[in-house]
Amino acid sequence: MDETSGLSSLVQYVYLASAALFILSLKWMGQVKTARRGNWAGAAAMGLAVLGTLIGGGISSEGFMWIAVAIFVGTAIGLPMALKMPMTAVPQRTALSHAFGGLAAALVGVAEYIEGRDAGHLTHFTSSALAAEMLLGFLTFTGSLLAFGKLQEIITTKAVVYPGRNFVSLGTLAAAFISAIWLGVDPNAIGAFYVLVAASLLFGVLLIIPIGGADMPTVIAILNAYAGLSASAMGFVMNNKLLIIAGALDGTSGLILSILMCKAMNRSFVNVLFAGVGAAPAAGAAPTAPNGKSIVGFSIEDAKAVLEDTRSVIVVPGYGMAVAQAQHAVKELANVLAAQGTDVKYAIHPVAGRMPGHMNVLLSEADVPYDQLWEMERINSSFPEADVAIVVGANDVTNPAARTNKQSPLYGMPILDVDKARTVIFIKRSMNPGFAGVDNELFYLDKTMLVFGDAKKVMTELVASFKEGAH
Amino acid sequence: MHEPSGVIENLFVFVLASFLGLELIRGVSRLLHTPLMSLTNAIASIAIVGSLLITGRPHDSTLITVLGTVAIACSAINAVGGFLITERILKMFKKRGE
To answer: Does the annotation count A343 as an active-site position?
Structure first.
């Protein structure tokens, strides 16, 4: 018998209200003004969904006991994680929660499969949907765990490439697909079930291993979509429209974000997933200066002298700012500059950082008002009028080669027009090339001042030198 | 498990919800993409509904109880954590002078 027909019709109304609240939640998330309301609407929707399911009947008293234990354990883990997590760890935490979401969907899929198979009531459609749920769930689980490991720097953040890797990955994916189809044709093929589980788990690993750190925003968004789609597949299996709707909303969100990330790098999905961009550059590929120009480092005092008496300054933050936790020091410098009458803006590239919107969150944490955070398309026309552009921990997204050099791997990527500012102060940890392993010609422009050092240290020293000067 | 007509109905729901999702997400300011992702993450923990149903349904398989219980715990981590983190992130967004 259909499991949902046993639920009272009341539960269906509760689910309907929950679905409507999820939709409102995403609608309200559109603007800062209403975003918090959106979040609460989402939480209320989830509360209704859980409540409706629990009162819907059909749950045994033993079941209630296990449910209570599981919810207690989940809350005991989830609550402190959410409250104590530092804001710089948002990308890792997002990857980890994709892993939990994928695992939950996959395990339910396995349980449904075992139960349905033992009872002998698996239809071709149900087992196909179960196969999709398990495939997406398991690959999201291992893929997201690996992404978490990379973001937490437990494993190398570089792209790990090996000969024939695309052959191995696609072969594994093919094995997963074939066993999924097999399971659809013959729901009792236990061998296909085992192959599906193993191949999906392995493919998640193979998918993420060759991805370098700077491609993480795209990959996290794709995993987000997969987690949602696996919940939708679960809805098809259980004939539950709330699951289908919420999963579809999550799936489309991940899809749109990953498309936006790809566009912001002028790359395709296939290129991000299979090109292995961001592998360690070949040894000896030291940057060579054009026209025999050499790199000169400037001092804090030099930078201070340039920043004094400026009318407008644009700060360009990147992942380096997050690594050095320099956002508070950056904000202090902005305060000092504002005190001398300088207009300060922040230029945010869509793929700066390790997840969509990463820089906005870090700068908001440092109390930067969000109306000073400018999107690339809106700020680029302001660079020619800016006295100084300060690049803090960004590199590839400022490289003019993306506009001019057809040979560059960055060619065609939309960039921040930092080179059009009157002076560029570029804070850099070392002379290592950026993530893409490409030299930045910005370093060799006469208007560029390279200041070497940790972003936070340089910023703090700059602030200190301004304050000394004031006494 | 259910009539084929149910499948078609569900496909309608899926396709329409996806188009609605595309429209809604396109309307989200880029400023909010990180909280959007943590919100949709929390929303994906709707998988808890399926986990509750499979665990709570009367059955006599320990394996299913274990799988279901772990699935509920995983979803609960996301549900509790996801909305709380989104709230923490959104609280930080302030306008000049606010």
So the answer is: no
